């Protein structure tokens, strides 16, 4: 628990339906303010799962990167990305390139990797005119809202992510793995529990099974931790889904999710998952200069559709190993 002194110092706003929020007075030096308040901010995230900081006045990538580095233990280099990003500096990225009129549903960043961020950091340099919030949802609460039988199946079987890489939709092989060298890609896949198959046209297909429910590495709380709904075909806009099926075939979509035994995850299940997320969503529209910190294991996040220019910088920090989160299913190995 954070002390009453810390809560007062940070002017913490805990209104229902919004992430924990505080107003900062950085007096023109956001990096030094972040360094001085690092422990208090991280204590708020530990208690509430996320915090939105308003008043830092972040305005450029260099200053934002400096803030990220003062708040994190270490920044991560993204691997296995599903969409391309702009790289501002080491460990500092743009938000994924995703159509602005389409929802990016609730998910836990890189939850299909064997190591993933423990902390996500977002900074808004330019807010859209409409929409575009980075909303959050408490994963233990979402877990409790799901039918017990469905949770039990996912705990027993895990979830399966299938990907078919191409140069048209989503991240390419080079963007996802940081190399086009087949040997290096194969070595990475073998080391990270990813089945792979090269296609006659030179494309790559992969499969990886991961646990859908984990325990938080610090608190031990059970968390619904995955990207089952977000990367599933039934979360796509119907017109986009129809186009991709026509273009690539139902079994070769750029990405899709299944039950761990390979059975399809039906549209009814995806709807149920997204309804549980929505019922437990907290949101606050971005303002230019805002900063948000999110516990990536405890808290899912989304990006809502928007209109107008939107520039949000992202850092993935403080890596956590799946092996340290009491996984419930074995990783596919080859």
UniProtKB/TrEMBL annotation:
Its cofactor is Fe(2+). One of its GO terms (biological process) is antibiotic biosynthetic process. Coiled coil: none annotated. One of its GO terms (molecular function) is dioxygenase activity. Keywords: Antibiotic biosynthesis, Dioxygenase, Iron, Oxidoreductase. InterPro entries: AlphaKG_dependent_hydroxylases, TauD-like_sf, TauD/TfdA-like. Residues 19-316 form the TauD/TfdA-like domain. The keyword Repressor does not apply. PANTHER family: GAMMA-BUTYROBETAINE HYDROXYLASE-RELATED, TAUD_TFDA-LIKE DOMAIN-CONTAINING PROTEIN. This is TauD/TfdA family dioxygenase. It comes from Actinomadura rudentiformis.
């Amino acid at each position: 628990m954070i002390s009453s002194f810390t809560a007062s110092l940070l002017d913490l706003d805990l209104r229902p339906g919004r992430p924990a929020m505080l107003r900062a007075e950085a007096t023109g030096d956001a990096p030094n303010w972040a360094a001085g308040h690092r422990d208090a901010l991280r204590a708020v995230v530990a208690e509430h799962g996320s915090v939105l900081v308003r008043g830092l006045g972040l305005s450029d990538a260099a200053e934002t990167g400096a803030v990220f580095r003062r708040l994190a233990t270490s920044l991560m280099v993204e691997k296995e990305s599903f969409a391309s990003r702009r790289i501002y500096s080491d460990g500092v990225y743009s938000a994924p390139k995703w159509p602005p009129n389409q929802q990016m549903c609730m998910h836990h960043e890189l939850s299909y990797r064997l190591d993933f961020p423990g902390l996500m950091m977002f900074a808004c340099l330019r807010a859209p005119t409409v929409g575009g919030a980075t909303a959050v949802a408490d994963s233990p609460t979402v877990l409790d809202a799901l039918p017990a039988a469905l949770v039990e199946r996912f705990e027993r079987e895990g979830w399966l992510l299938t990907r078919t890489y191409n140069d048209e939709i989503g991240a390419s092989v080079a963007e996802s793995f940081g190399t086009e060298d087949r040997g290096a890609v194969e070595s990475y896949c073998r080391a990270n529990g990813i089945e792979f198959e090269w296609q006659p046209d030179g494309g790559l297909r992969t499969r990886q099974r991961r646990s859908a429910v984990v325990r938080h590495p610090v608190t031990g709380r059970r968390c619904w931790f995955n990207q089952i709904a977000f990367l599933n075909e039934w979360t796509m806009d119907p017109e986009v889904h129809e186009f991709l099926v026509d273009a690539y075939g139902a079994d070769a979509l750029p990405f899709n999710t299944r039950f761990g035994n390979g059975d399809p995850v039906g549209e009814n299940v995806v709807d149920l998952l997204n309804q549980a997320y929505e019922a437990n969503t907290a949101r606050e529209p971005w303002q230019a200069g805002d900063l948000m910190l999110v516990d990536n294991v405890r808290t899912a996040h989304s990006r809502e559709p928007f209109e107008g220019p939107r520039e949000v910088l992202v850092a993935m920090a403080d890596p956590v190993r799946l092996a340290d989160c009491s996984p419930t299913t074995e990783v596919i190995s080859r």
